[in-house]
Amino acid sequence: MPTTPSRGARYGALNRTVIVAAARTIADRDGLGQLTLRRVAESLGTGQASIYRHVSGRDELIAALCEDLAAGFPLVTDQRSPRTAALRQWEAIHRYLTEHPWGAPAIAAGDTVAVSGERLAAHATAQLRRLGLTGRDAARAYRVLWQLLLGHLLNAHPLGHGADHPRAGDESDFRWALRHLLDAFAGTPRRH
Asked: Which fold, 7-69?
């Protein structure tokens, strides 16, 4: 039987940051539905009671995990053009959530509001304003782009359209829709 490194060897002293990192590993690998305090404790080589010293239960752990996810959203600064900057930003968010597949369902469920997400919201909305949108329209466009992104990541069904149509979740399909939306927001002709 292979030996598991001790908690100290693998993670250092037990604290909330270490617990959230272990939870992220489990959620990334097995999904949020498989995340339990017991599994986190086992992965850290400690008992569940030790985990409870840092988080009150699974709900608090998931909230901390969502906060950690939001804090890690990439902020892309691309000086070539406002459209390119916005395009690269949303592609980066897509890649990031693809690396953390539990993230899109957690965001869509809306059970947890991560304060750290405000950083991304302000950044991405400012990018949309640079496209020429007013504050209200930039906020609307931001929500539309989230709906596109989450719908794309959550819908793995082939949509019943047969082999000639890309499967939902295909990144090129997302990028095509993203480009067309950004062109519409900027009032520029669509590129195919």
From this structure: Arc Repressor Mutant, subunit A (1.10.10)
